[in-house]
Amino acid sequence: MESITVLILVIILVVYLRLNRAKLLGKWGEKKVSLLLGLLGNGYKVFNDVIIRNGNWTSQIDHLIISHYGLFVIETKNYKGWIYGGADQEQWTQNIWGHKASLSNPIRQNRGHIMALKKILPEYSVNQYKSIIVFSSKAKLKTHLPKELNVIYTWQLLFRIRSFKEYILTDENIKEIKVVLQSQMLTDKEYKKIHVSNVKQITKRKVNLVQSGKCPRCEGELVLRKGRYGRFYGCSNYPKCSFTLNKES
Fold this sequence. Notes:
Elements: H1 2-19, H2 21-37, E1 45-54, E2 57-67, E3 70-77, E4 81-84, E5 91-96, E6 99-104, H3 106-120, E7 129-135, E8 139-141, E9 151-153, H4 157-162, H5 171-184, H6 189-211, E10 222-227, E11 230-235, E12 244-246
Parallel strand pairs: 3-7, 4-8, 7-9
Antiparallel strand pairs: 1-2, 2-3, 4-5, 5-6, 10-11, 11-12
């Protein structure tokens, strides 16, 4: 009887791990980065898993660092396989042995996080924010992106942060930012549930627009086009709107 109970518990555990694999991998990736950021030293104040209000919504930031060298906003991606994507594309592509999947453009995601921070810290300019996108070393970035976009691997993270040497925030600035940030951070589990619900609503809206042939960014018409790497859907308002979506084969 005891062996049957153990077997049932093992089956439940396996099912749980399979159903929550992506979420658990993401959390593990964030944990590894948070441990790494702890090596930066006293000159850097690190906040992990930050949720702040963004109007009627919330914005979840994986890691936020306040230092004399700026506010570092870090988005972690614990993916593996080949990763393709341009700076302005809505979706990027993950390719694992020919199996393709889409992921949200992390550069655009981080821009949204910075805009949310600017709402609560309006006196600080965009130049004082440093966006960094961190991919696991199991991933291979196959699209060349400008260095200033800071799309890097985990092993490069500390080097990239320490490469910023210009003082752009004073001690007084740092104290003020900490006070404002700590007053706006949402740590209650209920607010985390609101954040997840909001993300689902945004995703559902985008999916509905795309399914109806509309651009999820500006609601222009999606037009089938042919490019260097095959056929894709582009917004009819190009070049004002540069949204693209790969055509599934």
